[in-house]
Amino acid sequence: MSTTVELPDVDEACAYCGSRIFDHDPICVRDCTDDCGSATYFCNYACLSTYVDENNLTAGDACEWSPDDPHCC
């Protein structure tokens, strides 16, 4: 799966807080489960983390663990 790398506009705003991403430590995120879609930009990891938490984006995306599982560790 290939994607094209393009720099965002100099005035690109953070998807969470609206700050200019290049005034901080920007992060680019793509959802590559559906043809990689458009990039979403965040000004830092704190905004990305908060966005993920507030939108419940990790629900259902992790394996279940049980200490009684015979295949565990």
Topology readout:
Blueprint: E1 27-29, E2 40-42, H1 45-54
Antiparallel strand pairs: 1-2
Organism: Halonotius terrestris
Protein name: Homolog to small CPxCG-related zinc finger protein
What does this protein structure show overall?
By secondary structure, the chain is largely without helices or strands. It has one helix at residues 45-54, and strands spanning 27-29, 40-42. Strands 1-2 form a two-stranded antiparallel sheet.
Biggest beta sheet attributes: 2 strands, antiparallel
Strand content: 5-15%
Structural class: little secondary structure
Strands side by side in the biggest sheet = 1-2
Distance between the termini: 32 Å
What is the count of helical runs?
Answer: 1
The helix-strand sequence is EEH
Overall number of strands:
2
